Amino acid sequence: MSDGPTFRDELVAAGVLVPTASDGIYGRSSVYEDIVAGLEGLVNATAASEGSAGYRFPPVMPRSVLEQSGYLSSFPDMIGSVSIFRGDNADHKRLIEVAQSGGEWTSFLEAADVSLCPAVCHPLYPTLRGTLPEGGRRYDVSGWCFRREPSLDPARMQSFRQHDLVYVGDAEQARQHRDRWLQLGAEILDSLGLAVETVVANDPFFGRVGRILAENQRSETLKYEIVTPINSAEHPTAIASANCHLDHFGEPFGIVTADGEVAHSCCFGFGLDRITLALLRTHGIGPGDWPAAARDRLWP
Amino acid sequence: MEETIRTILAEYGHLPVPMDKIRDGDDLYQVGMTSHASVNVMLALEDEFEIEFPETMLRRSTFESVAAIRNALGDLIEARAN
Fold first, then answer.
1. Which of A68, A203, A208 should we substitute to test contact with B (largest number of B Cβ atoms within 10 Å)?
2. With an 8 Å Cβ cutoff, is B33 touching chain A?
3. Contact, A241 vs A269, CB < 8 A?
4. Using the 8-state DSSP alphabet, how is residue A262 labeled?
5. Torsion over CA of A66, A165, A229 and A201, rounded to 10 degrees?
6. Other residues' Cβ atoms within 10 Å of the Cβ of residue A252
7. pLDDT digit string, tens, across residues A115-165
8. Maximum distance among all alpha carbons in chain A?
9. CATH, domain range B2-81
10. How far apart (Å, rounded) are the C-alpha atoms in residues A263 and A134?
């Protein structure tokens, strides 16, 4: 371990990231947000040229999506469920007393029917119930995700943004979408001056059964990540990923192709916060000094 | 044991063909068993045979055919007897 300032220290000292009482929850400066906005513009333009339908969902979603999507069974350690207060006046009095004495006031809450959104494409699938048009459809969704992974690594935030390019339709076109976006995504990231590599990957499925799920995902090459060094060259960080879901969402959400088959889906996601961090790491904390090629792409 | 394995696969494997059409050595993943279904098969086998698959056996290949499952269970049950 080096004793010098970490990348997080540098970001915090420069005021680019503002830490809070909870690790992995940050405020972002306008310098940081300008980079995110530049990335969004770049991805939006490419998605629009493909005829994708754009949607933006809020960072909370119906809790039922967490159950139906399988996220609850595969990643129970990462979910965030929203709790609310529905007590009466007497409960309110006790709640305040407990809170003021530093006690565990959350025991007065109960779970609402909403949860935090763990992956930006998940709220989309329940809205697609029914029969798709011939050839399937492409969607472009962007927004905030929550995963309960408190960490001092700025590249592992609890609350972060993804921009996903989704295809829903037949199996063959889902694979093609994956392959095309892996290439387009790598080109976009390369044009920003990032040293990227595409590798086979797996999701961090929970527990004993997770080992089998992860091995299956790898052996069927369902997930790829585009990685670049942020914290170390030996362990580069995923800044984008492509996931072939097969009929994992088509089945529970009742999405059917024009031919009457259960729909397959595939999602390519840009990790907007991680790409922003990779750019700050690669080109320096001051975007004014970045290479002209990267600046021209982000802010044409 | 064979019969029990097949009953569990019929219930939890979500296979698109009936179990009596599946031979011992057929690759269940090729037939259409998803990874989530294979996990449910694993948990049902553990309940039924009162065993726990060790980490070294938590692999795709352990559950890839009726024969592979029978071999894995045979090893575990034999180890328990010793």
1. A208
2. no
3. yes
4. B
5. 60
6. 16
7. 999 999 999 999 999 999 999 999 999 999 999 999 999 999 999 999 999
8. 63
9. 1.10.1200.10
10. 12
Q: Which of B59, B58, B18, B32 is nearest to A171 (CA)?
A: B32
Would you give the distance in Å from CA A132 to the centre of its chain?
25
Average pLDDT, chain A: 96
Higher pLDDT, B55 or A96: A96
Token representation of residue A216: 């299956």
A217 and B35: CB-CB below 8 Å? yes
d(CA A172, CA A253): 20
SS3 A33: helix
All domains in chain A, ordered by first residue: 7-80+118-298 (3.30.930.10), 81-116 (no CATH)
Nearest to A209 among B34, B42, B60 (CB): B42
- As a residue count, chain B comes to 82
Q: Do B42 and A246 touch (CB under 8 A)?
A: no
Q: Can you read off the two tokens belonging to residue A217? A: 């995902």
pLDDT at A3 over 70: no
Pairing of strands A110-116, A60-62: antiparallel
Q: What are the extents of the domains in chain B?
A: 2-81
CB A84 within 8 A of CB A117: no
What ipTM was predicted for this assembly?
0.80
**B58·A211 Cβ contact <8 A:** yes
